[in-house]
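BUG-557 | component: ligand-complex export | severity: low

The export step for adenosine-5'-triphosphate jobs runs without errors, but we want the raw record kept on the ticket for reference. Input record follows.
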Amino acid sequence: MSILNAIEVAGVEKIYGGSVHALSNVDFHVADNEFAVLLGPSGCGKSTLLNLIAGFEDVTDGDVRVFGTPVAAPGPDRAVVFQEAALFPWLSVIDNVTFGPRMQGRSAAEYMPVAEEFLRLVGLQDFYDKLPSQLSGGMKQRVGIARALVMNPRVLLMDEPFGALDAQTRLSMQELLLRVWDTHKKTVLFITHDIDEAILLADTVYVMSARPGRIAVKIPIELPRPRGVDLLTDDTFNELRREIMGHIRTGATIQQAA
Amino acid sequence: MDKTTALPIDPAAANAAGASGRGRAAERRGMAVIPYRESRLKGIAQSLALPVIVLIVWEIAGRAGLIMSGILPYPSLVAQGWWTWAFGENVMGLNAYAGTWAENAFNSFERVAKGYVVAILIGVPVGVIIGWSKLAARIVDPTIQSMRPIPITAWLPFSIALFGIRDFGAIFLIALGAFYPIVVNATHGARDVSTNLIRAAAMMGANRRQMLFRVVFPSALPAIFTGMRIGLGIAWTAVIVAEMVAVKSGLGYVLWDAYYVGRMDIVIADMVSIGILGFMSDWLIVQLQNYCLKWKQQR
Ligand SMILES: Nc1ncnc2c1ncn2[C@@H]1O[C@H](COP(=O)(O)OP(=O)(O)OP(=O)(O)O)[C@@H](O)[C@H]1O
Ligand SMILES: [Mg+2]
């Protein structure tokens, strides 16, 4: 029945401090259970857009809705996975993962089995009592993902969650995320500036251009699922990569650096 | 662009370089390995050398009559005076100090404890709230900042006028002196909370009260402890000053009184006592800090 889009962004402008035009007339929507990826060069406004949807910042003009409701403030219906994990350093892994349900006053009987399930899913069942400082970058990111999933959010917002990881860890995290998404369908908005990562994960890739930030082109990725990293050498994959690179190169406003 | 860096590197050569690099590192570590107990004893001996030599020279010079012992009594005289101060009996009122050390030390300690606890109970919440709420900062911070340059010693006459020669005046000074570093550091700590942690808590549904107690306060705790340690030092300064002027007991009172009657052995013993008590109370705070900030140490 639901013809409501999970995320609906219409005519959004974002100007910082009266002069930095971070986003200009951004229009796009993400369907329920769609995996959407925002791809673009550094500084094109990807994080800004995600922060508006998360409710961390206010639009200068335009409309941001999540399942029809205008976004006013951050909330547990829109879980965010941050680039630097942003775990509470004084809390153990399990306390970090259960922070959301605890703040919402849920009972331990309700959230503990779920938390344990997700910790197992991300392979951290043996690290309950560890502190974030005792974990590697990839492990911290996995805690960040588990903590987001435990809240059973309607939308998962991920801002370059694997950007700070080495290539090897990054690949295994991408596989992990694909596995999680296949078993727990969710609406995901994922930010990256890595073309391979975008194609591997997305149902739809939105290429952004910079100064001011806009959605330049929408590219559906019709690769079969479930996907794995072996896809990276696939012919269709390489074609898509060439196509996206073409868009990035021809996009006059996009910096060479991308 | 530098062409040489773009050349493919011979993997074998790179490996060899890596291996020898590791080898050198291990060697360097190996050279530093001295049996733990031995290196520790050596360290203690090195730190003790200077004070021990000073004490010996002082003792010898004193006994040889090179220093007037009425002004600067040598160590063994101080030790004797201290012993009587601590354990002696006031026979026929001949030695007013005999046996009063513990009582006076306790008096000072108790005042510091009281004033310090007041400073923490007020300074920590006020500081965290100033750091957290811009409104609170606008209302309270300018007042605190404009009072802060007034040294606590300058408050003495005011405090005596207000509270008289009573315990309360001393405790007021101690609390005031310790309050400033605690409130200032707590403010900084609460203000420096990482935006991402605030956002993470907000997206997980934390309300303002939870944000304050579960995110801002723990984030500020390391800074709060820094302020508490500085505050403790000021508390001991304040208690001595206050007791010299505003009350008739405690190590500060004895210090000034002994000076007036020319008992320099007691003066020196008193100074050392203050140092020891200050050191011990700081040690206690450090233990509390280590316990509360366990998450900062484990790496
Ligand atoms: N709080 C802010 N105040 C002022 N300018 C800002 C602020 N946040 C972002 N900007 C500016 O807005 C533009 C977009 O920034 P944004 O962080 O959204 O880029 P991004 O696409 O996420 O880049 P990256 O890939 O490096 O994370 C940049 O020019 C940035 O300098
Ligand atoms: Mg960004």
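Assignee comment: Attached the raw record above. Residues 208-245 of chain B form the longest helix (38 residues).
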